[in-house]
Amino acid sequence: MVELEDDVQMVSSELDRTFIFEDEGHTLGSLLTYVLESFPETNFCAYSVRHPSENKIYFRLKVKEGNIVEEVFKRGIQELNKVLNHVKKTFNKAITNYEGTK
User: What is the pLDDT confidence band of residue 78, given thresholds at 50, 70 and 90?
Assistant: First the structure.
């Protein structure tokens, strides 16, 4: 589940948003940060786990003027999904090839 949260110090903006992922951790945070940092529209991208007993990540994204943060975020999720599907396909192919050599 993903929630949206505006930072207390910041006025809500199309350029800056904190997304909260429940039941997620460093794996998703790190991968999504890697993908979104590669986008030229990204000004800042980071995640945090505020407390070890809290099972959620807070994902902060700021985009450059002329962009909408939610659109860039959605594109990042779609790009990450493509990467993970490629990894899954490559892994399954390697397993099939390995089993064929036994």
Answer: very high
| Closest alpha carbon to 62 in 23, 19, 22 | 19
- Distance of alpha carbon 66 from alpha carbon 13, whole angstroms: 12
Residue 41 CA to residue 87 CA, distance in Å, equals 26
* Farthest CA pair distance, the chain: 61
For 2-100, CATH number out of 3.40.50.2300, 3.30.1360.10, 3.40.630.30, 3.30.70.1050 equals 3.30.1360.10
H helices within the chain, ranges in order? 26-37, 69-100
- Lowest mean pLDDT of 32-41, 49-58, 66-75, name the range: 49-58
Residue 10 has pLDDT above 90, yes or no: no
